[in-house]
Amino acid sequence: MTKKLSLNEAAKIMRAANFEPQESYPGAGKRWKCICTICQNEVTPRLSTVQNGIGCVYCAGLAKVSEEEAIRILIKAHIRPLVEFPGYRKKWKSRCMVCEREITPTAASVKLRGKGCIYCGHEISATKRKLSQEEAFTLMRANGLEPQEPYQNSNRPWESIHVKCGRKVKPRLSGIRQGESGCMYCSGKVVNQQKAEELLRSYGFIPLESYPGMNKIPWKCRHEKCGNIIYTKYNSIQQGKAGCIHCSPTAKLTNEEAQEFFIERDLLPLEDYESSQVPWKSIHKLCGNTVTPTYASVQQGSSGCSFCAGNKKISTNDAKEFFLSKELTPISKYEGINTPWLSIHTRCGKKVSPRLADVKAGGGGCGYCGGSKVDALDAVNLMKENGYKPLIDYPGADSAWKCLHIKCGNEVSPKYTLIKRGEGGCSYCGGNRPIDGDYAVEFFMSKGFVPQEPFKGVHHPWSSIHKLCGKTISPRFKAVRAGKSGCKYCSGTAVDATDAVAVFESRGIRPIEPFSYTHRPWKSIHLSCGREISPTYADVAHANGGCKFCATKGIDLTKPAHVYLITNEVLGAHKIGISGEKSKRINVHQREGWQVWNTVLFPTGEIAYSIEQKLLTWMREDLDLPPYLSSDVMPQGGWSETCEAEEIDLPTIWAKVAELSSVKRWI
């Protein structure tokens, strides 16, 4: 672990970088209130970033600005804000004064680039990539299109003749380059008047106006079958969904039509029809009873008569007769099919209150015989049969029931449901009794652990010495009893500092700072080459790392290497990286669509690697620019060194490379 600097040491570093501290040193990774001695502005840099060569954000032109300054930045770039200032790095709804389009740039991106309209930027880019007349004509003719006017640009409709069908069309060259056919007639996007009318007539519709030109616009027609005027759509007809709302089964019926339907089914309406879901008072001709079925239920096959269907109100005598047939003797007044009816179940003799509707639906009627209820006396008898003497009244099947276990004499609280299922109810006899201190010490000693403090409980860490390795550890009694090793050092889940130093020295590496943990870089000296390195214990212990200078794989940090800056317009991203002088790393990126913006060769890979890391720290911490792409988009690797192209431009990034280079002649 790196030694923490004193206030004087930290202040000396800050003053050397033109910062005058205004408060006590907070730590290398925390912001430190200072005054820049060059511009006299108050800033809050981190000591760690200052050590990496990062300076004052105001002097570098990267500081956040006030609302007035932000407005001046946008006006200077020919952009007019439409809403209040949202923040330096937040999207700001504005209008470009050049093309009059609405855009949402950030004040930070406009300040860095000096411009912010994506539309004007695309037009400029398009002009740079514009094809010649000969190239454009050749591309159109290769796709069966004969241009009828000179080529202007790829996004403008270009009047042409489709050779295959002979129709005049206006495709865009950009669409042709992306694989579009260019003919809206042959692709089915547009239908001519005659074809549309023929399809409409084939479904029994007579057009009353010309085809509207789009297949999703309502088209006024007359349905030949019913003579009504409707509005249908060409795409609905084409997909076989044509229909007349007046002829549809779901259309609202007239009173005459509904009454005719009811009369055909022996139902005589006594009032006018309202709708299919409203009860309709009628007389059932077959039984003469007045009923109120809905039109919808009769349409779906119902007879409409609750009396004839067996759903009529049941009399008291009929209800009593039915209960007696189910071994239920009523002892109270019958109040209705859905009201609980107090009765005695003749089979078990217990009082129950089933509903007539439930019994008619197939229910047994007795909760005790069905198992859904438990009689208190039956529960007490069951507990006694299993060796438990209840000490309180029956609390419920799933509640703890205070009892005396007759076998061992201990007081326990089992649940009725567990005893009924045949499970044990005594924690003492079941081996789950509380653990006392003497037993715990005896058990730990048998497992090779010597306790160094009193026993606190099975879940508490217990400071002990492992007799096998002699180290002090704090295993839990529960874990050791469950069969776990208990010693984190012997199990390999932790590493002792002394053992870690021994492993490094066995690999020819001498640590020059205290050990912290296995996956943190550990500053050391490689004895073979004498260079300072920072491998992790985990890598060295598993023979996966050591000296980056002596390594036989990856980039050789002792030989010349490039720092490169590449960009991808399709993905909207920039990437910084390093590669060996003769490496094909840049070629791999080019095959994936990346273009090289600039490269610089340094004498050693160590210098190139240092500049790359400082540049990434500047982008991630000072500019708050996270990695923009993912490994899915970049199968060749390198996604973690990308950033969004809209947030920062290429000249700004390369200027920082030049600033971080200790020898300017390399740039």
What can you tell me about this protein's structure?
The structure is a single chain. The chain is of the alpha+beta class. The chain has 10 domains: 7-51, no CATH class; 67-125, no CATH class; 130-177, no CATH class; 193-238, no CATH class; 255-299, no CATH class; 316-370, no CATH class; 376-420, no CATH class; 437-481, no CATH class; and more. It is built from 23 helices and 31 strands. Strands 30-28-29-31 form a 4-stranded antiparallel sheet, sandwiched between helices. Strands 1-2-3 form a 3-stranded antiparallel sheet. Strands 4-5-6 form a 3-stranded antiparallel sheet. A hairpin with a 5-residue loop joins strand 23 and strand 24. Helix 22 packs across helix 23. The longest helix is centred in the C-terminal third of the chain and has 18 residues, at 605-622. It is flat, with a radius of gyration of 43 Å. The two termini are 36 Å apart. The mean pLDDT is 82.
Which terms would index this structure?
667 residues; alpha+beta; 10 domains; four-stranded antiparallel beta sheet; three-stranded antiparallel beta sheet; 23 helices
Mean pLDDT: 82
* Strand order in space, largest sheet: 30-28-29-31
Question: How many H/I helices?
Answer: 23
By helix and strand content, what is the structural category? alpha+beta
Beta fraction: 15-25%
Give a short account of the largest sheet. Answer: 4 strands, antiparallel
Amino-to-carboxy terminus distance: 36 Å
Number of strands: 31
Radius of gyration: 43 Å
| 3D shape | flat
* Uncertain segments: none
The domain tally reads 10
Helical percentage: 25-40%
